[in-house]
């Protein structure tokens, strides 16, 4: 297994990483010796990872299987994670709306980049663009 894409949570407490074994992992930075939480469900390399800026417990993973999965980190329950099964278009719409709201509060500096989540684009590409 090798790790493909990784990012810190917005509060810096966790690292989310995609991997070549169809699984994403979440590490608790404050507990480096603890094993990571495994997020299983993809059927391809997990190549995209992103945290939602307005909800530090929500994250997204995208994989070569063409799917995007939405996960909820349950920090009060031993930092477990559960998958939220929703349609990809619903996730893309939510990302678009929340990104626009976050940027509206922050100012217009990066609004154009954050709002580039058109439904014509594939959801995996939209998540990948958001991470970079």
Word description of this protein:
With 132 residues, this protein is an alpha+beta fold. The chain has one domain (3-131). 24% of the residues lie in helices and 35% in strands. The chain contains three helices and eight strands; from the N terminus they run ββββββββααα. It has helices at residues 88-106, 111-114, 123-131, and strands spanning 3-8, 14-19, 23-28, 37-40, 46-51, 58-63, 68-74, 80-84. Strands 1-2-3-4 form a four-stranded antiparallel sheet, with no helix packed on it. Strands 5-6-7-8 form a four-stranded antiparallel sheet, with helices on one face. A hairpin with an 8-residue loop joins strand 3 (23-28) and strand 4. The chain is globular and about 30 Å long. Mean pLDDT is 67; it is low at 76-80 and 99-132.
Outline type = globular
Sheet/helix structural class: alpha+beta
CA gyration radius, whole angstroms: 14 Å
Largest sheet: 4 strands, antiparallel
Q: Number of DSSP strands?
A: 8
| Low-pLDDT ranges | 76-80, 99-132
Query: In angstroms, what separates the terminal alpha carbons?
Result: 23 Å
